[in-house]
């Protein structure tokens, strides 16, 4: 007897395994919906690219929220950085915070690069993390110091460009996705996509200086978490 389908996938023609696999491909790798469509077709699964896009919209954020709750506690140092992105011909700023291990803590797409924008990021971080960091590391943008004095006055603040390579390098996957997607269409789309993308990347991230055995164990754990959050086991 076939097990009952999980309520999350009710009224969907395709099984949970196919939906979760398509969503994983889309957010884990720099693939467009059309590329995911072709990869599924190679396995005999005929799904349109629009269906892949709708699955990503419907399920992605829910999966990302559950991944965040299952990840180990982040480090106590916050590396903050901002990078310019062009959306519909307008300049926007992608603000990102990572910990000392390279785990993305949060992102915020804003139209400004000033103290108010930096303050919004810090307040969002405090709300998500539940406590201030031990140290905050940024480049020499004065907006960070002004925002820190208001939001986290007691936190140590180090400002030096060479100390912030970890945050600057975290923008590279975004640049790759930006090229595949032929730029983001709106600030809201960028915020939604990157909020999901970064959590999936956190789950499957391979830390530096990890040997093969440790990497395989971490990868097996990541796949088990993905199975749990997508409810594939119960819906199989």
Automatic annotation (TrEMBL):
Which part of the chain is the DDE domain?
76-205
Question: Which Pfam families did the record assign?
Answer: DDE_Tnp_IS240
Tell me where on the tree of life, at the top rank, the source sits: Bacteria
Q: Name one GO biological process term.
A: transposition
- GO MF entry, a single one: DNA binding
Alphabetical keyword list: DNA recombination, DNA-binding, Transposition
What protein is this chain from? Answer: Putative transposase
Natural source organism: Microvirga subterranea
């Amino acid at each position: 007897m076939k097990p009952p389908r999980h309520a999350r996938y009710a009224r969907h023609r395709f099984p949970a395994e196919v939906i979760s696999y398509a969503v994983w491909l889309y957010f884990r790798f720099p693939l467009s919906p059309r590329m995911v469509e072709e990869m599924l077709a190679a396995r005999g699964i005929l799904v349109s690219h629009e269906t892949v896009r709708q699955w990503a919209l419907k399920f992605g954020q829910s999966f990302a929220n559950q991944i965040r709750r299952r990840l180990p506690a982040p480090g106590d140092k916050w590396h903050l950085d901002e990078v310019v992105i062009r959306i519909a011909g307008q300049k926007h700023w992608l603000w990102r915070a990572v910990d000392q291990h390279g785990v993305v803590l949060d992102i915020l797409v804003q139209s400004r690069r000033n103290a108010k924008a930096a303050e919004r990021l810090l307040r969002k971080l405090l709300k998500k993390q539940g406590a201030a960091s031990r140290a905050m590391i940024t480049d020499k943008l004065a907006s960070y110091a002004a925002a820190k004095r208001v939001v986290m006055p007691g936190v140590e603040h180090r400002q030096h460009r060479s100390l912030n390579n970890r945050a600057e390098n975290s923008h590279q996957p975004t640049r790759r996705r930006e090229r595949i997607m032929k730029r983001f269409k709106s600030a809201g789309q960028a915020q939604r996509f990157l909020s999901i993308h970064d959590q999936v990347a956190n789950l499957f991230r391979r830390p530096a200086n990890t040997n093969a055995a440790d990497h395989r164990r971490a990868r097996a754990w990541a796949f088990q978490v993905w199975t749990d959050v997508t409810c594939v086991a119960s819906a199989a």
